[in-house]
Design a protein that fits this description.
Layout lengths: L8 E4 L3 H9 L4 E4 L10 H11 L8 E10 L2 E3 L5 H11 L3 E11 L4 E12 L4 H10 L19 E5 L2 H5 L3 H11 L8
Parallel strand pairs: 1-2, 1-3
Antiparallel strand pairs: 3-4, 3-5, 5-6, 6-7
Helix pairs in contact: 3-4
Amino acid sequence: MAAPPTPPLILASTSPRRREILEQLRIPFEAVVPRYQEASGDPVEHAVGKARSVGLFGNRPVLGCDTEVLCEGRVFGKPETEADAEEMLESLAGKTHEVVSGLALLTPAWEEVHREVTTVTFRPLTPRDLARYVASGEWEGRAGAYAIQGLGASLVERIEGDYLNVVGLPAALLVRLLAERFAGAYGFG
């Protein structure tokens, strides 16, 4: 007799990138729009807030995640204008920065709350590099004004850590937690 299908986890996010990563990993999920307002710059706090804001769905795990970019003590959020994007990218050029994600995996019985850090080094960027990237529009809605999975890869010299964390979800951490907490249920462990 076949095992019953694994109930999908609940993704407390509207991020298309997080959805794509879960699909890539073949983790069944249902996305629910979080009812949470971000106030501070702490991605762990935001991840927990997002996950808690959607409520619990029986024993199904609820996943919340938030990501920010840090360089030399400055938090790089999502730029609002082309000028903001260019200034952010110019500030990151030739430097190493951190992509920090908070991940919260919640059920009625327990909470797993973690911070994941990936370091990314940008190559030195010329005014032409900056203009080309900003003109692409890829910076819109992206923390740090770039998308490593797209044209933004051309800005990067080196990465240390979980690549998918930079895309928007610390996948290695999530897989480890699912393997530990739900051995075999989601295909891991």
